[in-house]
Amino acid sequence: MKQRNIYKQTDLPVFQNRLYKSAEEGQNSPTGDINLVQDNTTGLIYNANFKSHLLQYDTSYNNDQSCSPTFKKHMKEVADLLTSKMGKKKLIEIGCGKGTFLELLLSHGADIIGFDPAYEGCNPLIKREYFSEDTKIKGKGIILRHVLEHIQNPVKFLYTLAKANGGSGLIYIEVPCLDWITENRAWFDIFYEHVNYFRLKDFSNIFKNVIYSGRVFGGQYISIVADLSSLKQPKFDPKEAFDFPKDFAKISIPNSFSGTNKKIVVWGGGSKGVIFSLLSARAGAQISHVIDINPAKQGLYLPGTGLKVVSPADGLKNLSHKSQVYVMNPNYLEEVQTIVGRNFVCKGPDYE
Fold first, then answer.
1. What is the pLDDT of residue 15?
2. What CA–CA distance (Å, rounded) separates 135 from 116?
3. What pairing do the DSSP bridges indicate for beta strands 126-127 and 91-94?
4. Over the range 270-300, which residues count as b (16 or more CB within 10 Å of their CB) and which as e?
5. Nearest to 313 by CA among 329, 289, 330, 333
6. Spatial contact of 301 and 22, defined as CB atoms under 8 Å apart
7. Residues 287, 304: Cα–Cα separation, whole Å
8. Beta-ladder partners of 172
9. For residues 336 and 274, is the Cβ–Cβ distance under 8 A?
10. Which helix (H) or strand (E) holds 338?
């Protein structure tokens, strides 16, 4: 057997960070299935049911978190870490999105260019194309933040990047951490856009020379710096066989969802909020609406549930005293509690 089944979910939205103009449009958005497996050759974990043609990224895709002071602090810490390990000269960011992190590095004096075919801004340092040998550009450092989890056959992709960069240079990789998802029973962090789910140990199997490795953003992300010339084909070690805890996918309905007339709202219109709301609704929960501080998301509707995303002011104004606000990311609990004040109870999505 070439792979071992780990976790399944059906009919999840293929996009978690594309919102819609009406509830009906959100409810009828495209879906796909999750079948997480561990490959018995490489040891890597991925969605065997992933179909890349379902995902066409364009300017309507919005996963920007930079409205949050907490996330801005994280980006600053990553910028400091990255430049201390890789320097500031001849940097290339692959999949730079809206250019927020690239702009931050520029403000720190970095010599950097970016590549992203879906870029919609006007910075001439960002090319609306894929990085390849045809670009004739090579860097001392490649930056790959929250890209590799979206790529089928990630090792092949890394070899392609290395070849395009002349077979040398350093690479900074940041991806969600499967160990954090497991430790926190974060079933709402498994979704279709991410085909790969990495553990820290996977990168020592992919690179011979890992210069730095660790976990950042409260442990939620893996952060590594490695030598591109040291790429290797990973090999499965049976001692590293992966399984979720037996209670990982337990989606029970908290007391606050039953026997009360208080409205329950979700704070966070991104990936976590989309999956939390959808699977909670399937378990019988009644969620009123979703709050997000990103103005670009407000007034739009989530895929799957069709729940409306509103501003903090609109989302809180009609709530009764001590209503519970489910904050999707525990890193933002203190930030959100400061915004909502003492009238409401902020808590994470831990039901127990």
1. 86
2. 13
3. unpaired
4. bbbbbbbbbbbeeeebebbbbbbbbeebbeb
5. 289
6. yes
7. 13
8. 143, 225
9. no
10. helix 333-340
Tokens at 134, concatenated? 């045809």
- pLDDT (tens place) for every residue of the chain, 352 residues total: 588 899 999 999 998 878 899 999 999 999 999 999 999 999 999 999 999 888 766 555 655 666 678 888 999 999 999 999 999 999 999 999 889 999 999 999 999 999 998 888 889 999 999 898 888 899 999 999 999 999 999 999 999 999 999 999 999 999 999 999 999 999 999 999 999 999 999 999 999 999 999 999 999 999 999 999 999 999 999 988 999 998 887 766 555 444 444 557 899 998 999 999 999 888 888 888 899 988 989 999 999 999 999 999 999 887 877 777 889 998 888 888 888 888 787 887 764 4
What's the rounded Cα separation, in Å, for the pair 188 and 186? 5
- Using CA atoms, how far residue 126 sits from 67, 148, 161, in Å, is 21, 19, 17
Half-sphere exposure of 6 (CA within 13 A, CB side): 26
Extract the tokens encoding 44.
Answer: 């890597």
The full DSSP string for 22-56 is: SHHHHHTS-EEEEEEEEETTT--EEETT--GGG--
Find all residues with CB under 8 Å of 180, minimum gap 6, and list them: 186, 215, 219, 220, 221
Tokens of residue 230, six digits? 């040291």
Task: Determine the residue type at 253.
Answer: I
How many Å apart are CA 239 and CA 117, to the nearest integer? Answer: 40
How far is the C-alpha of 269 from the C-alpha of 250, rounded, in Å?
A: 22
| Contact between 200 and 213 (Cβ < 8 Å) | yes
What is the b/e burial string over 316-342, where b = at least 16 CB atoms within 10 angstroms of the residue's CB? beebeeebbbbbbbebbbebbbebbee
Instruction: Report pLDDT for 283.
Output: 85
Residue with tokens 């890349």: 52
Residue type, 228: L
